Sequence to fold (713 residues):
Amino acid sequence: MSTQPNDKGAQAVIHGLQERIQALRALIEHHARRYYEFDAPEIPDSDYDRLFQELQQLELSHPQLRTPDSPTQRVLGQVLQGFAPVAHTVPMLSIRTETDTTEAGAREFDARIRRELGLAPEAAAVRYCCELKFDGLAINLRYEHGVLAQAATRGDGETGEDVTQNIRTVRQIPLRLQTHSRPCPEVLEVRGEVYMRRDDFEALNERQRSLIAAGHRQEKTFVNPRNAAAGAVRQLDPAIAARRPLSFFAYGLGQVQGWGGALLQGPTSHSEILQALSDWGLPVDEHRQVVEGAAGLVAFHRDIKGVRDHLPFDIDGVVYKVDDRSTQDRLGFVTREPRWAVAHKYPAQEEMTVLRAIDIQVGRTGKLTPVAKLEPVFVGGTTVSNATLHNEEEARRKDVREGDTVIVRRAGDVIPEVVSVVLQRRPPGVGAPFDLVQRLSGRCPVCASPIAREQGEVDWRCTGGLYCPAQRKHALLHFASRRALDIEGLGDKVVEQLVDLGIVGTLPELYRLGVAKLAALDRMGDKSAANLVAAIEASKQTSLARFLFGLGIRHVGEATAKDLARHFGSIDRIMGASLQALLEVPDVGPIVAQSIRGFFDQPHHREVVEQLRAAGVQWNEGRGVRSDTPRPLAGQTLVLTGTLPTLSRDEARERIEAAGGKVAGSVSRKTHWVVAGAEAGSKLEKARELGISVLDEDGLKAMLEGPAQEGAT
Ligand code: IVH
Fold:
């Protein structure tokens, strides 16, 4: 009698589940299409994973509700129009994702493998090959007789797109395999990930931003390296693709023919496959490691987590693969994924949150930066509540409004940024489009001076100069920074109080600070006050270049300050130099010259210089550089990497600059020489890739001396 209502109840539950399952399938299909086909995701990957997992869970607990067309039963994505379809001989599968980001995720995988293999608890540990999970786009490279014949995207796993022309522009991908140390099979399909390094991505977006600022409205910035890489691979014009700097890592095989004959023994483990790929000249990541058992997996996960922020590229986790190939075969596949591999995630670098307000911050040179105040969100391993919107143009182009749901990205050491708005979640009655001038009523939010934007610039600035407390704080911090006057102990907290309490208003006032005044500040004892006074005293002995740099003249960075110091030799000559005279300094163009002239044309800036001199700040002055002084490295750009036997980084840099050369932070096609010492890293690798000449310290010294003077005695 009582079964009736219960049955009804059960039916209602099943009905509810069915509805949820259908809704999940529709959502997943939608977001997969946004991600795979349009490279324009609307939700962060972590949310997508959560939806997918919920569906997997429901289908697992209610197998009767699973249907063959569920997204869990196949790999998503469709062939784009415009590229020829390529049928994959061996399907390009995906791997199961473990989203428990703690070490339990690793233990669980090992436990499952042992269960599937029927191993007793006392049986030996399973060997795994651990790799990074690169965040890019999966590619199949087909080599026939060692020559790259075709490159294809994954597509739906069965059929991908022919992107050979674009892939051929990726310099890291060999067009012909190296077979001197190891012969290669007749047909070899290499599976791997095309990705974009973070520095290449930042530079690309910087370039895009200036194009947009210069009026190229059809250009856009990219939301993350993965999207930029995917966009480049699917660029119909290979010339454009070639300008988007892509990189590649190989991690597996597709079809292989002609392997296993008498001549050519096929590898028996995954780690040997990776070694073979590397021997053939394909880039294989160096972090890969063969480990034993759960403890090995846990240690790998932890170690990589520690270095994740310092990697030059994004990863969203690590991948564990059973190393032995015959064991892999025993484990086999479940519909969509191999049982012998898993991707173990890290906390996502992109998350969704609500933008509460847009604040405007004032930088050292008065630059006004819109900053998003966020509902705190855990992203990339920390809680983020502020993210940059770069400038007004960017904020407007992304159409960011207060109250919007946004995607925030924090990767590596880069400052968190708002990458996009989730328009579907825009609440009714959301704030108006961002308008910086209107918001500020045309005045600096800190000092109320008028704001201005120079022609052709994207940034608005406060015109208050050192009258503005915000700029004054930045100016003091910059003056005290390591490469300027190097005053240790004069950090954010101290400067904040010194300015807010009206103790220090100008740079020279720093030199009037006594222990008593400093010791009265918050979080400052007698000891640290005395240390700070001593550091301020010590900073009086400086160099003209440091002093000039420390003044914080717009467009005068360290290198320009050095050039000016070398060229003129004295501060009075610099302060008195005409535009024409300034333009004679190497690398000083009209904008820089005008900025220097404009700075010293203001009487209060000259006064600051006089007062600093009167306070005892001093340096050696010289006669300046005669135009016939030899500059053997003029016009050359060098990159330093590793530890040189006798010269420190700073010494090497100073000597290169004294010889007229420039030192850059990263290797690009514009680099002329790379100077490498012990333990040189990726910069040396990049130099080799780009075919840039490499020098050791002796080579550098020889260059610094310049070519032997003909006829010299
Ligand atoms: S192995 C059958 N290894 O992550 C195993 N995949 O779902 C095939 N990925 O589409 C994948 N790094 O694009 C493998 N070291 C790695 C990887 C990796 C990134 C990507 C790949 C694949 C997805 C896994």
Summary: The pocket of 2-(butylsulfanyl)adenosine is lined by residues 93-95, 131, 133-134, 138, 193, 251-252, 319, 338, 341, 343 (CB under 6 Å). The longest strand covers residues 350-362.
